[in-house]
């Protein structure tokens, strides 16, 4: 099938696989084994990857902590910061965060923290007036995603960082969907912590990073206990091949992002216009301009999204985030932007990426439109 679910995950770029392979066989050393060349070679590879990840987001290598992915990074910052610092007891987040932010927030609420969940505007961006009112002298952390995994909306992170810092709070952003897709620079945005995931940017699964601004590392308590790897923040033998692949994926993204983002956005616009020409009453969700280039979230009239998807088996589509689809609850993101139950259940998410071709987009648009026409004719 034609793969149009790049928000769920991306294939490893073959160039990434190429650089990983030697670290699965000949260069298999443990980077903590400093006595021999096996270990030293692995350690050098990890440090090079750390620099490549740092370079993509405008950080220093010493500010990158490798984790198993954005889920772990989100947990590490939310739970790790609050277990060592309880001087302030308010956490501010938004209604459209990924579950790996919202679930730790739920636990923090149970532990007595005051969690403020900011509403978003119908375009999916955070209500800044509400943010300004919520971020106060009691606020320890503001955690807001950079871009949404369902509707693609990009948040005003620089403004939120400024609001947070004015009140002495720290700013974390879950940048899993943004890094490698849109310009993202921790210095320019004023970020203190950022979560990154390799498998969203053509790297391997099960590897990611937490960016920790220099000087803030000691404020985090690790989630796991063990050896002293990753600056005592994340023990466990490093996944060297995955880290090397993550580094290469970041290097490629840095080189190719401007061109790729233009190409992918043009394909997305083509898909949206072809569908809109054939299906009256389509509704596109998310911010019209401040949106991920490969994202399209579409609410269809008169049908249910899962029925539509089942009728387009030649295209790999999804209703919402991969982790919550399959439940009958409507997506919390679509609900937060004001869609009702029926609209949320009539919404599909399309993710276009590096390996999507124009032919695939034209074919997918045609197949989706035909399936919709048939279902409507048949009265579903
Ligand atoms: N945050 C966002 C916004 C995501 O889209 C995802 C994707 O699943 C995650 C976090 C989790 O990332 P990972 O799969 O690396 O744990």
TrEMBL record:
Cofactor(s) listed in the protein's UniProt record: pyridoxal 5'-phosphate
Keyword Iron attached: yes
Keyword hit for S-adenosyl-L-methionine: no
Signal peptide region: none
Known EC number: 2.8.1.7
Keywords: 2Fe-2S, Iron, Iron-sulfur, Metal-binding, Plasmid, Pyridoxal phosphate, Transferase
Annotated ranges, domain Aminotransferase class V: 2-363
Any one GO molecular function term: cysteine desulfurase activity
One matching Pfam family: Aminotran_5
Catalytic activity: (sulfur carrier)-H + L-cysteine = (sulfur carrier)-SH + L-alanine
UniProt similarity note: Belongs to the class-V pyridoxal-phosphate-dependent aminotransferase family. NifS/IscS subfamily.
Name of the protein in its database record: cysteine desulfurase
Organism annotation: Thermomicrobium roseum (strain ATCC 27502 / DSM 5159 / P-2)
Lineage, uppermost ranks: Bacteria, Pseudomonadati, Thermomicrobiota, Thermomicrobia, Thermomicrobiales
């Amino acid at each position: 099938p034609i793969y149009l679910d790049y928000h769920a995950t991306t294939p490893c770029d073959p160039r990434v696989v190429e650089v990983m392979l030697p670290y699965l066989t000949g260069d298999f050393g443990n980077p903590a084994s400093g006595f021999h060349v096996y270990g030293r070679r692995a350690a050098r590879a990890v440090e090079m990857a750390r620099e490549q990840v740092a370079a993509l987001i405008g950080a220093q290598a010493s500010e990158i902590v490798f984790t198993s992915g954005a889920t772990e990074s989100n947990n590490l910052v939310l739970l790790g910061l609050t277990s060592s610092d309880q001087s302030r007891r308010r956490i501010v987040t938004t209604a459209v965060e990924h579950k790996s932010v919202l679930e730790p927030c739920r636990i923090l609420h149970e532990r007595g923290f005051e969690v403020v969940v900011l509403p978003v505007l119908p375009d999916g961006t955070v209500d800044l007036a509400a943010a300004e009112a919520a971020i106060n002298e009691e606020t320890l952390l503001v955690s807001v995603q950079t871009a949404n995994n369902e509707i693609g909306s990009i948040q005003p992170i620089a403004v939120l960082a400024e609001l947070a810092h004015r009140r002495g709070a720290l700013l974390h952003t879950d940048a899993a969907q943004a890094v490698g897709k849109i310009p993202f620079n921790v210095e320019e945005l004023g970020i203190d912590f950022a979560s990154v995931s390799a498998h969203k940017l053509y790297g391997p699964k099960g590897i990611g990073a937490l960016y920790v601004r220099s000087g803030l590392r000691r404020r985090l308590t690790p989630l796991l206990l063990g050896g002293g790897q990753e600056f005592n923040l994340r023990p466990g033998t490093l996944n060297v091949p995955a880290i090397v692949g993550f580094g290469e994926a970041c290097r490629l993204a840095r080189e190719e992002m401007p061109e790729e983002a233009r190409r992918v956005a043009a394909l997305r616009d083509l898909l949206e216009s072809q569908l809109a020409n054939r299906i009256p009453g389509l509704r596109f969700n998310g911010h019209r301009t401040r949106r991920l280039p490969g994202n399209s979230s579409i609410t269809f009239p008169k049908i249910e999204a899962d029925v539509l998807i089942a009728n387009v088996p030649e295209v790999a589509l999804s209703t919402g985030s991969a982790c919550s689809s399959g439940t009958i609850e409507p997506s919390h993101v679509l609900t937060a932007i004001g869609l009702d139950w029926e609209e949320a259940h009539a919404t599909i998410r399309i993710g276009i990426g590096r390996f999507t071709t124009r032919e695939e987009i034209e074919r997918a648009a045609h197949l989706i439109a035909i399936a919709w026409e048939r279902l409507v004719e048949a009265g579903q």
